[in-house]
Design the sequence.
Protein backbone atom coordinates (compact mmCIF):
# COMPACT_ATOMS: atom_id res chain seq x y z
CA UNK A 1 0.00 0.00 0.00
CA UNK A 2 1.12 3.55 -0.69
CA UNK A 3 0.10 6.89 0.76
CA UNK A 4 1.23 10.33 -0.40
CA UNK A 5 1.35 13.09 2.20
CA UNK A 6 2.01 16.71 1.18
CA UNK A 7 3.49 19.28 3.56
CA UNK A 8 4.91 22.76 2.98
CA UNK A 9 8.00 22.19 0.88
CA UNK A 10 8.06 18.53 1.96
CA UNK A 11 6.71 15.48 0.16
CA UNK A 12 6.40 11.97 1.59
CA UNK A 13 5.87 8.65 -0.15
CA UNK A 14 4.95 5.81 2.19
CA UNK A 15 5.53 2.32 0.83
CA UNK A 16 5.34 -1.08 2.48
CA UNK A 17 8.45 -2.78 1.13
CA UNK A 18 7.34 -6.40 1.45
CA UNK A 19 4.90 -8.09 -0.88
CA UNK A 20 4.76 -11.65 0.36
CA UNK A 21 4.91 -10.98 4.11
CA UNK A 22 1.22 -10.32 4.71
CA UNK A 23 1.50 -10.70 8.48
CA UNK A 24 3.71 -7.59 8.57
CA UNK A 25 0.92 -5.15 7.70
CA UNK A 26 0.73 -4.05 11.34
CA UNK A 27 4.13 -2.32 11.09
CA UNK A 28 3.61 1.30 10.06
CA UNK A 29 6.20 4.09 9.89
CA UNK A 30 5.46 7.80 9.56
CA UNK A 31 7.81 10.75 9.18
CA UNK A 32 7.79 13.94 11.25
CA UNK A 33 9.82 16.87 9.91
CA UNK A 34 10.62 20.02 11.91
CA UNK A 35 12.38 23.01 10.36
CA UNK A 36 15.07 24.41 12.61
CA UNK A 37 16.82 27.36 10.99
CA UNK A 38 19.40 25.91 8.61
CA UNK A 39 18.44 22.27 9.04
CA UNK A 40 15.51 19.87 9.14
CA UNK A 41 15.08 17.40 11.97
CA UNK A 42 13.51 14.23 10.55
CA UNK A 43 12.05 11.64 12.92
CA UNK A 44 10.73 8.16 12.08
CA UNK A 45 7.73 7.28 14.22
CA UNK A 46 6.87 3.55 14.39
CA UNK A 47 3.65 1.74 15.20
CA UNK A 48 3.42 -0.35 17.23
CA UNK A 49 5.55 1.79 19.54
CA UNK A 50 6.84 -1.22 21.49
CA UNK A 51 9.62 -3.24 19.94
CA UNK A 52 13.23 -2.96 18.91
CA UNK A 53 13.65 -1.25 15.57
CA UNK A 54 16.60 -0.79 13.27
CA UNK A 55 16.71 2.39 11.14
CA UNK A 56 18.58 2.57 7.85
CA UNK A 57 18.53 6.10 6.41
CA UNK A 58 19.51 6.86 2.83
CA UNK A 59 21.94 9.43 4.28
CA UNK A 60 24.01 6.52 5.66
CA UNK A 61 22.87 6.99 9.26
CA UNK A 62 21.83 3.76 11.01
CA UNK A 63 20.49 2.74 14.38
CA UNK A 64 18.85 6.10 15.22
CA UNK A 65 15.24 7.16 14.80
CA UNK A 66 15.90 10.80 13.93
CA UNK A 67 18.50 12.63 11.87
CA UNK A 68 19.30 16.20 10.80
CA UNK A 69 19.26 17.09 7.10
CA UNK A 70 20.86 20.29 5.81
CA UNK A 71 20.13 20.11 2.08
CA UNK A 72 17.16 19.67 -0.20
CA UNK A 73 16.78 16.29 -1.89
CA UNK A 74 15.10 12.91 -1.95
CA UNK A 75 15.54 10.65 1.09
CA UNK A 76 14.22 7.40 2.55
CA UNK A 77 14.34 5.31 5.71
CA UNK A 78 13.96 1.55 6.12
CA UNK A 79 12.67 0.42 9.51
CA UNK A 80 13.04 -3.22 10.62
CA UNK A 81 11.37 -4.77 13.65
CA UNK A 82 14.47 -6.61 14.84
CA UNK A 83 12.69 -7.78 17.99
CA UNK A 84 10.30 -9.94 16.01
CA UNK A 85 11.93 -12.01 13.26
CA UNK A 86 9.41 -13.81 11.10
CA UNK A 87 11.80 -16.18 9.38
CA UNK A 88 15.30 -16.92 8.16
CA UNK A 89 17.01 -17.13 4.82
CA UNK A 90 18.86 -20.18 3.45
CA UNK A 91 21.78 -21.72 5.30
CA UNK A 92 25.05 -19.99 4.38
CA UNK A 93 27.47 -22.24 6.27
CA UNK A 94 28.92 -25.09 4.25
CA UNK A 95 28.83 -28.45 6.07
CA UNK A 96 28.08 -26.91 9.46
CA UNK A 97 27.11 -30.36 10.84
CA UNK A 98 30.37 -31.99 9.66
CA UNK A 99 28.38 -34.76 7.98
CA UNK A 100 30.27 -34.63 4.70
CA UNK A 101 33.70 -34.36 6.28
CA UNK A 102 34.54 -31.80 3.60
CA UNK A 103 36.42 -29.67 6.09
CA UNK A 104 35.11 -26.51 4.42
CA UNK A 105 36.49 -24.41 7.23
CA UNK A 106 39.84 -23.28 8.53
CA UNK A 107 41.17 -23.32 12.07
CA UNK A 108 44.05 -22.01 14.13
CA UNK A 109 43.84 -25.29 16.07
CA UNK A 110 45.74 -28.30 14.77
CA UNK A 111 43.94 -31.41 13.58
CA UNK A 112 45.11 -34.65 15.21
CA UNK A 113 43.70 -38.15 14.77
CA UNK A 114 45.88 -39.91 17.34
CA UNK A 115 45.39 -39.80 21.10
CA UNK A 116 45.92 -37.97 23.28
CA UNK A 117 44.19 -34.90 21.83
CA UNK A 118 46.28 -32.14 23.39
CA UNK A 119 45.32 -28.49 24.07
CA UNK A 120 44.73 -26.49 20.90
CA UNK A 121 43.86 -29.58 18.83
CA UNK A 122 40.67 -30.91 17.22
CA UNK A 123 39.37 -33.98 15.38
CA UNK A 124 36.22 -34.76 13.38
CA UNK A 125 34.57 -38.04 14.40
CA UNK A 126 31.23 -39.64 15.32
CA UNK A 127 31.24 -39.36 19.15
CA UNK A 128 33.03 -37.88 22.13
CA UNK A 129 35.32 -40.81 22.97
CA UNK A 130 36.48 -41.68 19.48
CA UNK A 131 40.04 -40.78 20.58
CA UNK A 132 40.01 -40.94 24.38
CA UNK A 133 38.14 -43.52 26.43
CA UNK A 134 37.75 -41.22 29.43
CA UNK A 135 35.80 -38.71 27.33
CA UNK A 136 32.04 -39.30 27.19
CA UNK A 137 30.64 -41.00 24.11
CA UNK A 138 28.35 -38.06 23.22
CA UNK A 139 26.69 -38.49 19.82
CA UNK A 140 26.45 -35.65 17.38
CA UNK A 141 23.65 -33.10 17.81
CA UNK A 142 22.29 -33.47 14.26
CA UNK A 143 21.25 -37.12 14.37
CA UNK A 144 21.71 -38.03 18.04
CA UNK A 145 23.41 -41.21 16.91
CA UNK A 146 26.71 -42.54 15.60
CA UNK A 147 25.48 -41.86 12.07
CA UNK A 148 26.55 -38.22 12.27
CA UNK A 149 29.77 -36.36 13.01
CA UNK A 150 30.92 -33.64 15.39
CA UNK A 151 34.00 -31.50 15.98
CA UNK A 152 35.89 -32.74 19.05
CA UNK A 153 38.05 -30.04 20.67
CA UNK A 154 40.61 -29.72 23.46
CA UNK A 155 40.54 -26.00 24.30
CA UNK A 156 43.67 -23.94 23.72
CA UNK A 157 45.35 -22.20 26.65
CA UNK A 158 45.37 -18.84 24.80
CA UNK A 159 42.26 -16.66 24.50
CA UNK A 160 40.67 -15.76 21.14
CA UNK A 161 42.33 -18.58 19.20
CA UNK A 162 40.00 -19.33 16.28
CA UNK A 163 38.90 -22.95 16.46
CA UNK A 164 36.48 -22.80 13.51
CA UNK A 165 36.12 -20.17 10.74
CA UNK A 166 34.45 -19.82 7.38
CA UNK A 167 34.29 -16.96 4.85
CA UNK A 168 30.71 -15.98 3.95
CA UNK A 169 29.34 -13.57 1.32
CA UNK A 170 26.70 -11.30 2.86
CA UNK A 171 24.40 -8.46 1.86
CA UNK A 172 25.09 -4.98 3.15
CA UNK A 173 22.71 -3.48 5.72
CA UNK A 174 21.25 -6.85 6.66
CA UNK A 175 20.80 -8.75 9.92
CA UNK A 176 22.17 -12.30 10.31
CA UNK A 177 21.95 -14.95 12.99
CA UNK A 178 25.06 -16.91 13.95
CA UNK A 179 24.40 -20.06 16.02
CA UNK A 180 25.98 -23.36 17.06
CA UNK A 181 25.59 -26.20 19.57
CA UNK A 182 28.15 -27.29 22.13
CA UNK A 183 28.47 -30.01 24.75
CA UNK A 184 31.03 -30.93 27.40
CA UNK A 185 32.69 -34.33 26.97
CA UNK A 186 34.80 -34.30 30.15
CA UNK A 187 33.34 -33.45 33.57
CA UNK A 188 35.72 -30.68 34.59
CA UNK A 189 35.99 -27.08 33.39
CA UNK A 190 33.41 -26.62 30.59
CA UNK A 191 34.30 -24.34 27.63
CA UNK A 192 33.46 -20.63 27.36
CA UNK A 193 32.52 -20.09 23.72
CA UNK A 194 32.09 -16.85 21.78
CA UNK A 195 31.49 -15.81 18.17
CA UNK A 196 33.61 -13.35 16.23
CA UNK A 197 32.95 -11.79 12.84
CA UNK A 198 35.68 -9.97 10.95
CA UNK A 199 37.84 -10.21 14.08
CA UNK A 200 35.24 -8.50 16.29
CA UNK A 201 33.81 -10.50 19.20
CA UNK A 202 30.00 -10.67 19.44
CA UNK A 203 27.99 -10.37 22.65
CA UNK A 204 29.31 -12.18 25.74
CA UNK A 205 30.81 -15.68 25.92
CA UNK A 206 28.45 -18.56 26.68
CA UNK A 207 29.58 -21.24 29.08
CA UNK A 208 28.54 -24.73 28.04
CA UNK A 209 26.74 -26.93 30.53
CA UNK A 210 28.91 -28.97 32.87
CA UNK A 211 26.49 -31.87 32.36
CA UNK A 212 28.10 -34.36 29.99
CA UNK A 213 26.49 -34.79 26.57
CA UNK A 214 23.93 -32.03 27.16
CA UNK A 215 23.91 -29.99 24.00
CA UNK A 216 23.52 -26.23 24.56
CA UNK A 217 22.67 -23.72 21.86
CA UNK A 218 24.43 -20.37 21.72
CA UNK A 219 23.67 -17.65 19.18
CA UNK A 220 24.19 -14.00 18.31
CA UNK A 221 22.73 -11.57 15.77
CA UNK A 222 24.94 -9.42 13.60
CA UNK A 223 24.22 -6.38 11.41
CA UNK A 224 26.37 -6.31 8.28
CA UNK A 225 26.44 -2.52 7.77
CA UNK A 226 28.61 -1.83 4.73
CA UNK A 227 30.16 -5.31 4.75
CA UNK A 228 29.62 -7.69 1.84
CA UNK A 229 31.90 -10.40 3.21
CA UNK A 230 32.19 -11.88 6.69
CA UNK A 231 34.78 -14.10 8.32
CA UNK A 232 32.64 -15.93 10.89
CA UNK A 233 34.53 -17.71 13.67
CA UNK A 234 34.09 -19.54 16.97
CA UNK A 235 36.62 -18.98 19.74
CA UNK A 236 37.02 -20.51 23.21
CA UNK A 237 37.70 -17.96 25.95
CA UNK A 238 38.39 -20.64 28.60
CA UNK A 239 42.18 -20.96 28.74
CA UNK A 240 42.39 -23.44 31.65
CA UNK A 241 44.22 -26.63 30.71
CA UNK A 242 42.42 -29.00 33.11
CA UNK A 243 39.33 -30.29 31.31
CA UNK A 244 38.07 -27.75 28.79
CA UNK A 245 37.19 -30.62 26.46
CA UNK A 246 34.07 -30.29 24.34
CA UNK A 247 32.36 -30.85 21.01
CA UNK A 248 30.56 -28.45 18.67
CA UNK A 249 28.03 -29.20 15.95
CA UNK A 250 25.36 -27.72 13.66
CA UNK A 251 27.02 -24.35 13.04
CA UNK A 252 24.61 -22.03 11.24
CA UNK A 253 24.65 -18.56 9.67
CA UNK A 254 21.41 -17.24 8.14
CA UNK A 255 19.85 -13.97 7.14
CA UNK A 256 17.13 -12.88 9.54
CA UNK A 257 13.87 -11.86 7.86
CA UNK A 258 12.04 -9.06 9.66
CA UNK A 259 8.93 -7.06 9.04
CA UNK A 260 10.09 -3.85 7.36
CA UNK A 261 8.54 -0.61 6.19
CA UNK A 262 10.10 1.93 3.85
CA UNK A 263 9.20 5.62 3.75
CA UNK A 264 10.39 7.90 0.94
CA UNK A 265 10.32 11.66 1.47
CA UNK A 266 11.62 14.79 -0.21
CA UNK A 267 12.72 18.07 1.30
CA UNK A 268 12.37 21.22 -0.76
CA UNK A 269 14.12 24.02 1.06
CA UNK A 270 11.80 26.82 -0.07
CA UNK A 271 11.77 28.72 3.21
CA UNK A 272 15.49 29.11 3.83
CA UNK A 273 16.44 32.45 5.34
CA UNK A 274 18.49 34.40 2.78
CA UNK A 275 19.61 37.97 2.12
CA UNK A 276 20.55 39.94 -0.97
CA UNK A 277 21.63 43.54 -1.23
CA UNK A 278 21.81 46.38 -3.72
CA UNK A 279 23.52 49.79 -3.80
CA UNK A 280 22.07 52.93 -5.30
CA UNK A 281 24.34 55.87 -6.08
CA UNK A 282 23.04 59.40 -6.82
CA UNK A 283 23.88 60.58 -10.30
CA UNK A 284 26.57 62.91 -8.98
CA UNK A 285 28.42 60.03 -7.21
CA UNK A 286 28.96 61.92 -3.96
CA UNK A 287 31.61 61.23 -1.40
CA UNK A 288 30.33 58.03 0.28
CA UNK A 289 26.75 58.94 -0.51
CA UNK A 290 25.38 55.51 -1.58
CA UNK A 291 22.15 54.00 -0.31
CA UNK A 292 22.29 50.33 0.79
CA UNK A 293 19.13 48.22 0.47
CA UNK A 294 18.90 44.64 1.76
CA UNK A 295 16.28 42.18 0.54
CA UNK A 296 15.31 39.45 3.03
CA UNK A 297 13.67 36.22 1.88
CA UNK A 298 12.54 33.10 3.74
CA UNK A 299 12.44 32.69 7.48
CA UNK A 300 9.65 34.15 9.57
CA UNK A 301 9.00 37.88 9.95
CA UNK A 302 9.55 40.15 11.79
CA UNK A 303 13.29 40.42 11.30
CA UNK A 304 15.97 42.04 13.45
CA UNK A 305 18.73 43.77 11.52
CA UNK A 306 22.21 44.34 12.88
CA UNK A 307 24.87 46.31 11.03
CA UNK A 308 28.38 45.98 12.43
CA UNK A 309 26.78 44.62 15.65
CA UNK A 310 24.51 47.66 15.96
CA UNK A 311 20.77 47.46 15.38
CA UNK A 312 19.88 49.17 12.13
CA UNK A 313 17.02 50.26 9.92
CA UNK A 314 16.90 49.68 6.18
CA UNK A 315 17.72 51.21 3.80
CA UNK A 316 21.04 52.59 5.04
CA UNK A 317 21.76 55.97 3.52
CA UNK A 318 25.02 57.83 3.01
CA UNK A 319 27.03 54.61 3.14
CA UNK A 320 30.79 55.13 3.16
CA UNK A 321 33.19 52.77 1.36
CA UNK A 322 34.28 49.85 3.54
CA UNK A 323 33.16 46.46 4.87
CA UNK A 324 29.84 45.96 6.62
CA UNK A 325 28.79 42.94 8.70
CA UNK A 326 25.06 42.43 8.16
CA UNK A 327 23.22 39.94 10.41
CA UNK A 328 19.51 39.15 10.07
CA UNK A 329 17.57 37.27 12.78
CA UNK A 330 13.99 36.14 12.23
CA UNK A 331 11.13 35.49 14.65
CA UNK A 332 12.32 31.88 15.13
CA UNK A 333 15.75 33.19 16.19
CA UNK A 334 17.26 31.75 13.03
CA UNK A 335 20.01 34.01 11.76
CA UNK A 336 22.11 34.54 8.68
CA UNK A 337 24.98 36.93 8.22
CA UNK A 338 27.05 38.29 5.40
CA UNK A 339 30.00 40.60 4.87
CA UNK A 340 29.29 43.30 2.28
CA UNK A 341 32.24 45.13 0.76
CA UNK A 342 31.48 48.60 -0.63
CA UNK A 343 33.93 50.41 -2.80
CA UNK A 344 33.68 54.07 -3.79
CA UNK A 345 35.61 57.20 -4.69
CA UNK A 346 36.79 58.83 -1.50
CA UNK A 347 39.02 61.34 -3.35
CA UNK A 348 36.55 63.47 -5.29
CA UNK A 349 38.82 66.49 -5.16
CA UNK A 350 42.46 67.22 -5.68
CA UNK A 351 44.44 70.26 -4.66
CA UNK A 352 44.22 71.84 -8.12
CA UNK A 353 40.40 71.77 -8.09
CA UNK A 354 40.43 75.04 -6.15
CA UNK A 355 41.91 78.09 -7.99
CA UNK A 356 44.78 79.61 -6.07
CA UNK A 357 44.70 83.08 -7.68
CA UNK A 358 42.09 85.86 -7.71
CA UNK A 359 42.59 89.38 -9.05
CA UNK A 360 40.67 92.58 -8.77
CA UNK A 361 41.84 93.37 -12.29
CA UNK A 362 39.57 92.15 -15.01
CA UNK A 363 42.60 91.79 -17.25
CA UNK A 364 43.44 88.48 -15.54
CA UNK A 365 39.86 87.27 -15.90
CA UNK A 366 39.86 85.51 -12.56
CA UNK A 367 38.13 87.97 -10.30
CA UNK A 368 35.49 85.54 -9.03
CA UNK A 369 35.42 81.92 -7.93
CA UNK A 370 32.10 80.13 -8.57
CA UNK A 371 32.07 77.17 -6.22
CA UNK A 372 29.28 75.59 -8.27
CA UNK A 373 31.68 75.40 -11.19
CA UNK A 374 34.69 74.35 -9.15
CA UNK A 375 32.92 71.55 -7.26
CA UNK A 376 29.73 70.71 -9.19
CA UNK A 377 29.53 67.22 -7.67
CA UNK A 378 29.73 68.67 -4.16
CA UNK A 379 27.36 71.57 -4.44
CA UNK A 380 24.37 69.39 -5.33
CA UNK A 381 25.19 66.17 -3.46
CA UNK A 382 26.88 66.78 -0.14
CA UNK A 383 27.18 69.47 2.47
CA UNK A 384 30.48 71.30 2.57
CA UNK A 385 31.96 74.31 4.36
CA UNK A 386 34.52 76.71 2.86
CA UNK A 387 36.59 78.93 5.18
CA UNK A 388 39.23 81.51 4.10
CA UNK A 389 41.72 82.87 6.60
CA UNK A 390 44.33 85.63 6.48
CA UNK A 391 47.92 85.01 7.47
CA UNK A 392 47.10 85.72 11.10
CA UNK A 393 44.47 82.99 11.19
CA UNK A 394 41.50 85.30 11.21
CA UNK A 395 38.48 84.13 9.22
CA UNK A 396 37.68 86.56 6.43
CA UNK A 397 35.15 84.44 4.47
CA UNK A 398 32.87 81.58 5.49
CA UNK A 399 30.41 79.70 3.37
CA UNK A 400 28.27 76.66 4.19
CA UNK A 401 26.70 74.81 1.28
CA UNK A 402 23.42 72.98 1.89
CA UNK A 403 22.95 70.40 -0.83
CA UNK A 404 19.18 70.51 -0.38
CA UNK A 405 18.89 74.30 -0.92
CA UNK A 406 20.03 75.51 -4.35
CA UNK A 407 21.95 78.80 -4.45
CA UNK A 408 20.36 80.67 -7.33
CA UNK A 409 22.02 83.99 -6.48
CA UNK A 410 25.53 82.59 -6.43
CA UNK A 411 25.94 83.35 -2.76
CA UNK A 412 28.67 80.74 -2.80
CA UNK A 413 30.77 82.84 -5.19
CA UNK A 414 33.98 84.30 -3.76
CA UNK A 415 35.22 87.58 -5.33
CA UNK A 416 37.88 88.71 -2.90
CA UNK A 417 35.44 90.31 -0.51
CA UNK A 418 34.09 89.27 2.84
CA UNK A 419 30.50 88.20 3.25
CA UNK A 420 29.69 91.73 4.39
CA UNK A 421 31.27 93.22 1.27
CA UNK A 422 34.63 94.50 2.52
CA UNK A 423 37.44 94.23 0.00
CA UNK A 424 40.27 92.05 1.23
CA UNK A 425 43.83 93.38 1.18
CA UNK A 426 45.89 91.78 -1.62
CA UNK A 427 48.19 89.06 -0.32
CA UNK A 428 48.32 85.40 0.53
CA UNK A 429 45.35 83.72 2.22
CA UNK A 430 44.58 80.18 3.31
CA UNK A 431 41.47 78.11 2.72
CA UNK A 432 40.01 74.98 4.34
CA UNK A 433 37.29 72.96 2.59
CA UNK A 434 35.39 70.50 4.82
CA UNK A 435 33.16 67.84 3.23
CA UNK A 436 30.51 66.08 5.32
CA UNK A 437 32.58 67.05 8.38
CA UNK A 438 35.10 64.38 7.47
CA UNK A 439 37.19 65.12 4.39
CA UNK A 440 39.30 68.28 4.44
CA UNK A 441 41.25 70.03 1.73
CA UNK A 442 43.71 72.78 2.59
CA UNK A 443 45.55 75.24 0.38
CA UNK A 444 46.69 78.82 -0.32
CA UNK A 445 44.96 81.59 -2.26
CA UNK A 446 46.72 84.67 -3.61
CA UNK A 447 44.78 87.89 -4.14
CA UNK A 448 46.21 90.55 -6.48
CA UNK A 449 45.13 94.03 -7.37
Sequence:
Amino acid sequence: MKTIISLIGIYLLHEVAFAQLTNCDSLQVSISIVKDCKQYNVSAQVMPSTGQYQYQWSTGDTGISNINIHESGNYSVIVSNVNAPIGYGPELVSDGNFSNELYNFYSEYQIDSTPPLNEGMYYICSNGNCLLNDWSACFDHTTGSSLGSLMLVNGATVANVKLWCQQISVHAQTYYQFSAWATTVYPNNPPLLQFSINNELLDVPLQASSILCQWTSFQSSWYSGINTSAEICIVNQNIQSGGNDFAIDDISFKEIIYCIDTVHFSISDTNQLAIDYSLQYPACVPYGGASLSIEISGGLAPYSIFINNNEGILPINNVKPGSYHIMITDANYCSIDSIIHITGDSTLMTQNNFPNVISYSSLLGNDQINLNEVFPELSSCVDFNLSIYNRWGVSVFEYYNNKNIPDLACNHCFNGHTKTGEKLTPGTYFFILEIEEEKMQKGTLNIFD
Q: What stands out?
A: Residues 276 and 295 are 5 Å apart (CA to CA). The chain has four domains: 2-85+261-267, 110-256, 274-342, 351-448. The radius of gyration is 45 Å.
